[in-house]
């Protein structure tokens, strides 16, 4: 297993709202058929309705799975929400929290994202908390301030909670656009996140990069000191490409 400063490499797929029972079966079979043990840690975050299929297809394999969102609430009259305890029943390891599509399309606030992370942790899931700046924010020189603001309520959960999370830096302008941050651009933000984690006493938290990661650019991103793996959208829908990213 490849490691960065003793942090294990992790490559997670985010299928977004893609898939069908037939397409998923082929993709999951292909992932399972690969010798997952010889790659880094791999996981897939799938749409809620496909969790049962995913759990069945990957049971007993080294590949983990999870959801793309989780409710901040434990239970009750929250129509359309899915709780962390429900995800747990389907064997989920991961719950994304604060993906930029949730923040921008569904108005999720920084505090709500932290509340979702806390709810996931309470059920023993690992929240994958996503942060990232828009193109406008980058161009106005606000990148690090935006990341700091987004992380503040998450870090306020305290050292023990944060140590049990994964963070993902996903510049909004690089998601689904084919425009990847350069390794240096990504590393600058990862280093700032690492500094905040170190200050809190949780320097070993894995920090993933996300935004148009593919097999062709993964190696240079993974070579950066503070990039511990990737959160992969589009390329995670093609088994061979996803596995090639993970094989780096
Ligand atoms: C994502 O959805 O988290 C993502 C990074 O997407 P893509 O890899 O397609 O840019």
From TrEMBL:
GO terms for molecular function: triose-phosphate isomerase activity. Keywords: Cytoplasm, Gluconeogenesis, Glycolysis, Isomerase. It is found in: Cytoplasm. This is Triosephosphate isomerase. InterPro entries: Aldolase_TIM, TIM_sf, TrioseP_Isoase_bac/euk, Triosephosphate_isomerase, Triosephosphate_isomerase_AS. Gene3D superfamilies: Aldolase class I. One of its GO terms (cellular component) is cytosol. It comes from Bordetella genomosp. 5. Substrate binds at residues 14-16, 176, 212, 233-234. HAMAP family: TIM_B. Homodimer. PROSITE patterns: TIM_1, TIM_2. It catalyses: D-glyceraldehyde 3-phosphate = dihydroxyacetone phosphate. The active site is at residues 99, 170. Transmembrane segments: none annotated. Pathway: Carbohydrate degradation; glycolysis; D-glyceraldehyde 3-phosphate from glycerone phosphate: step 1/1; Carbohydrate biosynthesis; gluconeogenesis; Carbohydrate metabolism; erythritol degradation. Belongs to the triosephosphate isomerase family. It is an enzyme of class 5 (isomerase). Involved in the gluconeogenesis. Catalyzes stereospecifically the conversion of dihydroxyacetone phosphate (DHAP) to D-glyceraldehyde-3-phosphate (G3P). GO terms for biological process: gluconeogenesis; glyceraldehyde-3-phosphate biosynthetic process; glycerol catabolic process; glycolytic process. NCBIfam families: tim.
């Amino acid at each position: 297993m490849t490691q960065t400063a003793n942090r294990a490499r992790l490559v997670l797929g985010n299928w977004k709202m893609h898939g069908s029972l037939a397409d998923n079966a082929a993709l999951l079979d292909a992932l399972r058929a690969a010798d997952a043990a010889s790659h880094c840690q791999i996981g897939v975050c799938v749409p809620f309705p496909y969790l049962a299929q995913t759990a069945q297809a990957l049971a007993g394999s080294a590949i983990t799975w999870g959801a793309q969102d989780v409710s901040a609430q434990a239970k009750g009259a929250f129509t359309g929400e899915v709780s962390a305890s429900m995800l747990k029943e389907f064997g989920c390891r991961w719950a994304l929290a604060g993906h930029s599509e949730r923040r921008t399309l569904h108005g999720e606030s920084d505090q709500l994202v932290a509340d979702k992370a806390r709810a996931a942790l309470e059920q023993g899931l690992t929240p994958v908390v996503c942060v990232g700046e828009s193109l406008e924010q980058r161009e106005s020189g606000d990148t690090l301030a935006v990341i700091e603001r987004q992380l503040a309520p998450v870090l306020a959960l305290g050292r023990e909670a944060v140590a049990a999370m994964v963070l993902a830096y996903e510049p909004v302008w690089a998601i689904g656009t084919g425009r990847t941050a350069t390794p240096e651009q990504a590393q600058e933000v990862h280093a700032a996140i690492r500094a905040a984690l170190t200050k809190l006493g949780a320097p070993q938290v894995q920090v993933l990069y996300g935004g148009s990661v593919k097999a062709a650019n993964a190696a240079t991103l993974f070579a950066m000191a503070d990039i511990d793996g990737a959160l992969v959208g589009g390329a995670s829908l093609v088994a061979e490409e996803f596995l090639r990213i993970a094989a780096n």
